[in-house]
Amino acid sequence: MRLVLDASVAIAATRAFEPFYAPARAQVERALQGIDVVVVPAFFFVEVAGALARQGVAEPDIQAVLDPLTRPPHEVVTIGPKRARAALRMAIACKLRGRDALYVWLAEREGIPVCTLDEEILLRGTARAQTIRPQLGV
Question: What are phi and psi of 132, to 5 degrees?
Fold first, then answer.
């Protein structure tokens, strides 16, 4: 399956104490095994790295999480001025925070679901794109 992977899933997949650790870890494992192909916006690196660094994760360990999810066959999509304006319209239409609107915009653009643990994306993003939670054994 090809999907947009929200940072919330990648972050939860590294934290065994997270309530959704098991399904998030299973989702990431499918990507690492090549079962799923993930598409992420370029700021995914920053979002995941910042969250993990705040938890005290060392830089080499952060890179070990990010590198396999952001190299082929996975895709990193840059966000320039035209794409930012499209995401701005998404933010307004769906009443989403900026980064959330970018994930939903990317999912709509690619015609693929966005996999997230973010309740606002799950609630409001469905107006424009398919939203899914990470699942065990899918």
Answer: -135, 155
User: Which H or E run contains 71?
Assistant: none
Q: How far apart are CA 31 and CA 26, in angstroms?
A: 9
Global model pTM greater than 0.70: yes
The answer to whether residues 1 and 34 touch, using CB atoms and an 8 Å cutoff, is no
Task: Single out the residue of 111, 87, 116, 113 nearest to residue 99, CA to CA.
Answer: 87
- Residue-wise pLDDT for 30-82, tens only, equals 999 999 999 999 999 999 999 999 999 999 999 999 999 999 999 999 999 99
Sorted by where each starts, the structural domains of the chain and their CATH numbers stand as 2-132 (3.40.50.1010)
* Cα–Cα distance measured from residue 5 to residue 27, given in angstroms and rounded to the nearest whole number: 9
Own/partner pairs for 67-72, CB < 8 Å, 24+ apart? 68/31, 68/32, 69/5, 69/10, 69/28, 69/31, 69/32, 69/38, 69/40, 70/40, 70/44, 70/45
